[in-house]
Design goal:
Largest sheet: 5 strands, antiparallel
CATH architecture of the largest domain: Sandwich
Structural class: mainly beta
Number of strands: 36
Mean pLDDT: 90
Shape: elongated
Low-confidence stretches: 2-22
CATH superfamily of the largest domain: Immunoglobulins
Number of helices: 1
Number of domains: 5
Strand content: 35-45%
Distance between the termini: 115 Å
Helix content: under 10%
Length: about 475
Amino acid sequence: MGVKSTFSLLFLWLFFLSQINAQECPTLISPLDGDTEVPVDNLIQWTAVDGIIGYLVSLGTTPGGGEIINRRSSGLNNFYEPEVGLPSNTVVYVTISLFLPDAPIKVCPLKIFTTETVTSPPQCTRLENPLNNETEVRVNTNLKWEYSPGATNYRISIGTSPGNYDIVENEITGNTIFYGLDENLELDQQYYVLIVPFNDIGNASGCVEETFTTGVPTISCQDTDFPTISIPDKIGLCQEQGFGVITSTDRARGYRWTYIQPDGLEFIVSESSQMRYDQVGQYRLELYNTLNQFGATIECPVTKTFEVVYSNSPVIENILITRENGGLTIDVRMERPGNFEYSLDGPNSNFQSNPIFTNVEPGERTVYVRDKYGCGITDRLIEKELSKQDFPAFFTPNGDGTNDFWQYRRPQDSNEIPYEVIHIFDRFGNFLAQIDPTSLGWNGIFNGRQMPASDYWFKAISFNNKVITGHFTLKR
């Protein structure tokens, strides 16, 4: 950058600073700087300043303080009326700041004045919101009244009949002209309000009640305003766990889960989409959406009563498989009774209450059993991988009670028998016996005579026609 350009930028910056510093501060014109006996309801006014974009006003009881109002914007108005008036017999410090375009806020020098000494009680005030005799008032409205010159405090009373202040009675609000109730008002109700301003001299006299009426809703729930509800008729309390948790999958604005005691008494268990429970009995789920008018909330509810019952997680004891003309019959036996349902198609579909499946095509399958009331699901493969190791390598049919029969060897952790039939042959391929896998087995006898010690062959056929072959030894 050349010397000429640098000089130009420096000149512009110095000019910009000079314009800011040259910006005049306003002069206090009502009251004048240093005035005394200023009325406590005096409008604060100053001379207008050109070229600014707004004013900030602070009024304090200490130099530069904001105890009365603090940095309150008046926009482009060159005046400000304090909402609750000024304190009596007090030195008031005025700070006026200027919003400048593209520049920091400029704080102008302090001005001061002294208020008058108030020697009489204040006058009565009147409601500003809602107005006296106003109707269709919102139930969540905040009360506001006009400032009473000289007042430093107010007492408010509110009731539902003339002179009967059953909601608020003689409550001191402080030096403010607003009042908000802790709870909403009732719909379609007339209210009576008495506001009495006061100061150190005394109370305003002769103040009269004013009244207003809240609105009457004109809206009602339509079909589309109600949520849907899809909770089951019965929910399980799993005895192994001792408690349960259920979550509503339906969307709604609000939820209420209620326990109904045997004596008819009710109490709310949860107000979220989820409920934890630890006792059986009758419950009710209430879902609701909401509509709003006049500040009140109208509920559009749906409910359903359901029962929590004791239940158990499923444990499979055995699966019996038999071959019929139309296919396999599968009979699922449970370790203990319960409210179970059964499926061969997967853990999430086509469950039935009957534990027996008929006309099932042969093949490796898995049985799924689940508790109807949500206490778990279990599964078992009903035809495991077949192996020669399922059969013993030898047997000793000598009548001593040990290894006297040769038979399929069931696993220790299962009673399942995946084989339908077993054939036995001698080493020359001659057929000797056909045995049922559920029987004791072959005792080493063929046509009434004991077969000699030797190696023998077997062919085991599964329910889905898989074939396992091998050999074993007969020892004597």
